[in-house]
Known about the structure:
A: 4-stranded antiparallel sheet; 26% strand
Amino acid sequence: MSARYSWGGDEFVFVELAEEMSLQANFRAMAITNALREQRPDGLVDICPANASYQVRYDPDVLDPHALMAQLQELEEQVGDASDVALPTRVLEIPVLYRDPWTTETLMRFRDRHQDPDGTDISYAARINGYASEDEFIAAHSGSPWFTSMVGFVAGLPFKYQMVPRDRQIVVPKYLRPRTDTPKQTVGYGGCFSCIYSVRGAGGYQMFGITAAPIYDPTQSLPDFTDFMVFFRPGDIVKFRPIDRDEYDAQLAEVEAGTFRIRQAPVEFALAPFLDDPDGYNARLLEVLA
Amino acid sequence: MTIEVRKPGLSTTVQDAGRTGYYDLGIPPSGALDQYSLRAANLLVGNAEGDAVLECVYMGPELVFTAAAVVAVTGAAMVPKVNGEERPQWESFAVDAGDVLSFAYLTGGARAYVAVSGGVDVPVVLGSRSTYGLGALGGFSGRPLAAGDVLPVGSGSGPGSEVVAGRSVPADLRTTYSKDVEVRVMMGLYDHRLTAGGRATFLDTTWKLTPVADRIGFRYSGAELETVDREPPFGAGQDPSNIVDAPYPIGSIQVPGSVEPIVLHRDAVSGGGYMMVATVLSGDLDVVAQSAPGTRTRFVEVDLDGALALRAERRARDGRLREALA
Lengths: 290, 326
């Protein structure tokens, strides 16, 4: 599997590792960009790993474009399929109020832009993915962990890829036309990716619920943000935990009091043993939160 | 000293040379969309080239100075006035305590830059004073200016050259504006998803800038691009213009639904699921920045060697500007 390299104007190199999404491609993107971060040649400005691709920004007045591309190709060789790479990361628990009143109100306002104007986003997603009920669908969405395969779009928004074999993955289309409004901290879904909207604004992903957990805090006032204003990093593993309205309100009060923290524990993630036995590996992974 | 905002204009923000190093977390560079005008405005008032200035879009603000200062306005043709009296653009002029700076209507370009000796002194966030509106980050409280805001002005981080009124950018180093522009691009990224005909349409069409043009992106109308038939890869979505969500270079041109290309600018969303077919050369982002809705635009293809040669020309022009204003 050979990567495709392209210039993004005079300051970017774009590298597509695979056309289709897979954890393998994502792991390669992460391994290559981590190795590049260690080498960090002079003139490198930004290193952006993504789902199945990555890009770097560089200053061609300092760093010769062809030398940079050769270095990236060499790293691709060295990393190989990245299956023997172990990634130090974190397991996080994100509490979700599914079918909450705020995203429900928003999705009703934009029904004319939706594939199923008579239903809700979650009823539509449950049906087209073959689930008998919305509860069963929520159990599937929250039942296995998710790998943060990219951070971006807007400040701190995580894209998450479900850590299950492909035949069990949830896939939904995006809205027919994007909404002009999405509540902050909406748990969304588009294609094979779940996301959490970090700020209020436009969006095209289906809306399933909301979390009280802030994930972007430009004022850095909450304890989870003392180091940096963006919470998520590529590679973070997420477990969604369904909660009820009472628990949501209690968490919101903690956020307002400035005491709320996202539950987390450090782990090392290795791709090969995960691919050999995803269910067993996930069960062990989630024990660290217990 | 401070500057009081009496009227904010349409969308006036504090911007400098921008921030780097955080794009991987979705925080774009921001900074003045027209970097050349930023540089010229600062050099005119004796500031460092990348100091913070005000970027004014389409309609200027009304500002009151609480102390004497030297001011310069570059970029879009929007004649400045002090207490109602016209002042030249691309030339520094003095203001006294209590003076009111306002602007005539825009007659060319889109974005004017107002530099004041000492620089706008909002806090530095992640290495820059620039406003990133979507993330409510940097600038003045992370947002465009509003009536009643009071902007602090610094004591200057400039090279120490004497601050004088009447310093002027030579005519050949001023930007002029046209409703017909050429924007140089390098094809690439996902341009293989276009048929040969689709590619030719992209380069042959005279695109028109729509009113959807802001610091995030500039949307153009003109034609539909023909794409190659394919089986969608897993995770990419059904539309032929969909891709597995990927990073977006600043200046990249995405084409959602194969119609209405969008040039992403310095407040870009950092990634997403639409095919990009080309990237505007970093220097020509200044040309895009000064395009007003209706501007007829041709995307002209250059290769990497051509792009590097144009970059060297820009550098040489920056050098002449520095010399002229030293």
